[in-house]
């Protein structure tokens, strides 16, 4: 089946964060490429889903049309299918939405793996998420002891990253998040779901600017899990199906805001259906500089800093265990500084090229993921065995 290409208009230049709204400064770029039958995998109203997907990607609300002219007619969002002769759609923004535009970072997923490491800074975060989500995975209902307190915006990205993303995309003050360990940046998830978050798994919240909760036009808030790959374990196991409802807490002031779910969904769409040109636009148009004002830290540095953070936590645990033991306790108070052991551990990497080091870390990460997945499968099977 032929594929549909969805275009969005991007500014050619942004000067001092100011956007020139003159039409001559805007260029149409292909963003999403997907077959019509694949869209039906996610929604019975394909135009509405495409509108939401491209809106989440560019960070602005607009309309789809089959023409790219300034005068256009929006498509029928209630249509159950897309005609075979429709091969291109254009996402139109008015001037107000063009000023709000803030596309998804192609690096949104990078270093997400480090977010599952429990440290002193994240211990309170996990406790808060467990309490809010009732000590059960919000999708698979697996007990919390088997689950991760997952960050929607990866912990390794830091506070500034979530601040800029939520500030640029927020439509109310309540949606702004200043701390990456804010309870509203977390969900209690089965490890398999956490691993795929923003890549193979995302959550669709309705109603949103493009979609209703159901074909009947209900207005009740609903959140459903979508898998972007055909893997029975992507949502936690064969018993969890595409479109399974996510359990939402009663107090919505403690629940993640719509814009965080949008970012995760946009990331998954980008991974599976995004064009190379879409990835280029983030850097070419100045958006990258706003999100990374100090430049992008590389993965090697992030991994090394995560190991230092873990050692600091281990030392903190040791200090707590030996509190009041005089000289030994006093010595541990200085372990936050790099010591000879730290330097010895890092020496083997000093003369290793960046590309080779990245490859080494990637292999180690894949081995760790495989081992963790096997262990998680065993735990869940044991748990389900007890239920039977």
From TrEMBL:
Keywords noted in UniProt: Coiled coil
Origin: domain of life: Eukaryota
Annotated region described as Disordered, given as residue ranges: 311-334
Pfam families: HNH_2
Entry coiled-coil feature ranges: 354-381
InterPro entries: HNH_nuc
Domain HNH nuclease per the UniProt entry, residue ranges: 137-195
Protein name: HNH nuclease domain-containing protein
């Amino acid at each position: 089946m032929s594929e549909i290409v969805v275009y969005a208009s991007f500014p050619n230049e942004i000067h001092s964060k100011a956007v020139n709204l003159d039409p001559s400064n805007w260029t149409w770029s292909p963003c999403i490429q997907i077959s019509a039958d694949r869209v039906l995998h996610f929604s019975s109203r394909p135009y509405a889903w495409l509108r939401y997907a491209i809106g989440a990607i560019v960070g602005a609300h607009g309309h789809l049309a089959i023409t790219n002219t300034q005068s256009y007619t929006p498509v029928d969002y209630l249509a159950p299918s897309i005609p075979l002769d429709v091969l291109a759609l254009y996402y139109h923004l008015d001037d107000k939405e063009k000023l709000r535009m803030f596309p998804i970072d192609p690096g949104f997923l990078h270093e997400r793996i480090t977010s599952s490491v429990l440290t002193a800074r994240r211990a309170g975060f996990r406790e808060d998420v467990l309490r809010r989500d009732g000590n059960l995975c919000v999708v698979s209902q697996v007990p919390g002891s088997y689950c991760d307190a997952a960050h929607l915006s990866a912990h390794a990205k830091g506070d500034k990253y979530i601040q800029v993303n939520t500030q640029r995309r927020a439509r109310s003050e309540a949606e702004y998040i200043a701390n990456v360990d804010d309870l509203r940046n977390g969900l209690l998830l089965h490890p398999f779901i956490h691993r795929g978050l923003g890549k193979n798994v995302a959550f669709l919240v309705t109603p949103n600017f493009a979609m209703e909760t159901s074909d009947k036009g209900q207005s009740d808030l609903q959140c459903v899990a979508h898998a972007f790959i055909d893997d029975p374990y992507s949502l936690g196991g064969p018993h969890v199906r595409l479109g399974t409802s996510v359990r939402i807490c009663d107090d919505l002031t403690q629940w993640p805001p719509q814009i965080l779910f949008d970012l995760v969904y946009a990331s998954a769409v980008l991974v599976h259906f995004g064009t190379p040109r879409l990835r280029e636009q983030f850097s070419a148009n100045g958006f990258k500089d706003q999100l990374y004002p100090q430049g992008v830290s590389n993965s090697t540095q992030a991994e090394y800093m995560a190991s230092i953070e873990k050692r600091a936590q281990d030392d903190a645990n040791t200090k707590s265990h030996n509190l009041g033991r005089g000289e030994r306790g006093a010595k541990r108070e200085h372990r936050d500084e790099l010591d000879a052991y730290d330097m010895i551990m890092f020496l083997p990497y000093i003369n290793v090229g960046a590309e080779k080091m990245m490859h080494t870390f990637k292999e180690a990460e894949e081995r760790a993921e495989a081992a963790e997945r096997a262990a998680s499968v065993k735990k869940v099977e044991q748990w389900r065995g007890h239920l039977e």
